[in-house]
Amino acid sequence: MQLDICEIFYSLQGxxxxxxxxxxxxxxxxxxxxxxxxxxxxxxxxSRVMTFDQIFKKLKxxxxxxxxxxxxxxxxxxxxxxxxxxxxxxxxQVLVETNGSKSINNLPPECxxxxxxxxxxxxxxxxxxxxxxxxxxxxxxxxxxxxSKEDYIFAKSIIENDLGFIPQxxxxxxxxxxxxxPETIANWIxxxxxxxxxxxxxxxxxWNPEKRGV
Length: 214
Ligand code: SF4
Fold this sequence. Notes:
single chain; about 210 residues; alpha/beta; TIM Barrel; nine-stranded mixed β-sheet; about 25% strand; binds iron/sulfur cluster
């Protein structure tokens, strides 16, 4: 089996409750959306075919058992669930970051889904497959990237109406980097007692925000 891979790299996880932990990222090629603030356009253009054996060999070169499958949109490729299952069998802890537009119902229950529900300023807020909420468990995480007050109100409505079963610590509001201040979103969360957390893209704070492979 094989997959179209954009890049595999070792860095610190920066956008979830796993933030700060060393992690190997497998970035799959291709995306079905075109978010206005996308910071990984290259994932739609750069691609090389790797067999599962080649992927496992690359993973073995890193002293790390936390793996994130990301993109682009990793669930566009039919072989992604099989890779996740095999990684779990090999003893890896697997995070899967998805844009929420493709069904997650065939992912192994052991992987942790990080679902990025797109808000209006992304221009892709119609993309969310709402039935995916049914396939989330309490260990999974939900992220809203916030670029405006309209985005915040959109996220707040979903959090309050549909995500009551997800622990507060697993619901992230993340500012569009360089577009809205973290303080603004912090004040909205505090003012509304919203059961969510403020998440900053740690890798963009540590390294140059344009730097790849971190
Ligand atoms: S889903 Fe992710 S990779 Fe795809 S366009 Fe949006 S931000 Fe970019």
